[in-house]
Amino acid sequence: MRDISFGQYYPVNSVIHNIDARIKILVTLLFMVTVFFIVSYTAFAFMFFLLTVSILISQVPYKTVLKSIKGILVLLIFTALLNIFFTSSGNALITTKLLVITDQGINFAIKMALRFTLLVLGSSLLTLTTTPTELTDALEYLLKPLKLIKIPVHDLAIIMSIALRFIPGLVEETDKIMMAQKARGANLDSGNLFKKIKAMLPVLIPLFVSAFRRADELADALDARCYNASPTRTKLKVFKVKAGDIFVFVGFAIVMTAIMLDKYYVGSFVTAPDLNGFDVSGLDIFIYNILYRVGR
After folding, report:
1. Cys bridge to 10: 128, 217, 230, 265, which one at CB 3.0-4.6 A?
2. Residue 139 belongs to what domain range?
3. One domain, residues 2 and 57
4. Is residue 214 domain-shared with residue 267, that is, in the same domain?
5. Please, are residues 281 and 95 in contact by the beta-carbon 8 Å criterion?
6. What does residue 95 show for φ and ψ, rounded to 5 degrees?
7. What is the pLDDT of residue 5?
8. Is 225 helix (H, G, I), strand (E, B) or coil?
């Protein structure tokens, strides 16, 4: 459980940390949208390169960011298997009575795994370089237009902030409970899946009790400090957009435009090579043509 890094903040003074939290949230949202429009492995490689450079600039250890992948490893494997076993288009590589594995299925599985990985790494970088308070204030600012239709924007932002703050605490609490149960002779690691689920009951019950107790203590603390007694609240830190923030936003907007052109425009004027049904699209066509000419 200690390997979970989502929701944790890594305190260090870096360029990424000093970017306006509103810009970071907008860029992260654009990043997530862009990931689903990537069609070529060349674009995937470029996005991983861009993300790696961002992590290096942020001075957050790469191992800390990669820890977030462990939490979705099972989902990655499950999604990849679904794409491999239930995709019938393309050339058959393995044919049995129960299933058919095609090159297109493997292609879809790899791209889906890459998309999930980019999404998790990008969102983890946001939480690792932005404090929960900054996230709360930035979300409240970005959601201001919803106040026109009587949506309690401030309350929604506080809920998100508290949820992010609770993640590291719950992870630490779960780790303590598991070690305590193991010290009492509980076997949490062996057996089949159903035995492991049953063995987790002595962990989940005290975890829920602890979570409800923390929630009650937090509610009492908010009431004792007369939270929300005033309709208007001031901010300790006022956001100011700097030239560097605008440069980051415009730069990623250009990257997003390039990805869109790679998906919708490149394939329209460049003829894809015939690889017996295997799909080659976007910038991969250029890479294939270059490698083909070099190979000849």
Report:
1. 128
2. 132-233
3. yes
4. no
5. no
6. -125, 125
7. 56
8. coil
Cα(98)–Cα(238) distance, integer angstroms: 61
Question: Domain boundary residue among 215, 233, 251?
Answer: 233
Of the three residues 186, 205, 233, the one that is the final residue of a domain is 233
The two structure tokens encoding residue 249: 């936003």
| pLDDT for 182 | 78
Specify whether 46 is located in the same domain as 111.
Answer: yes
Based on the fold, state whether residues 123 and 261 are members of the same structural domain: yes
Query: Three-state secondary structure along the chain?
Result: CCCCCCCCCCCCCCHHHHCCHHHHHHHHHHHHHHHCCCCCHHHHHHHHHHHHHHHHHHCCCHHHHHHHHHCCHHHHHHHHHHHHHCCCCCCEEEECCCCEEEHHHHHHHHHHHHHHHHHHHHHHHHHHCCCHHHHHHHHHHHCHHHHHHCCCHHHHHHHHHHHHHHHHHHHHHHHHHHHHHHHCCCCCCCCCHHHHHHHCHHHHHHHHHHHHHHHHHHHHHHHHCCCCCCCCCCCCCCCCCCHHHHHHHHHHHHHHHHHHHHHHCHHHHCCCCCCCCCCCCCCHHHHHHHHHHHHC
Do both 83 and 198 map to the same domain?
Answer: no
Residues 116 and 216 in one domain: no
Tell me, what's the pLDDT at 230?
Answer: 58
Residues 166 and 226 in one domain: yes
126 and 24, same domain (yes or no): yes
Domains: count for the chain: 2
At position 102, the amino acid (one-letter code) is: T
CB contact at 8 A, 258 and 249 = no
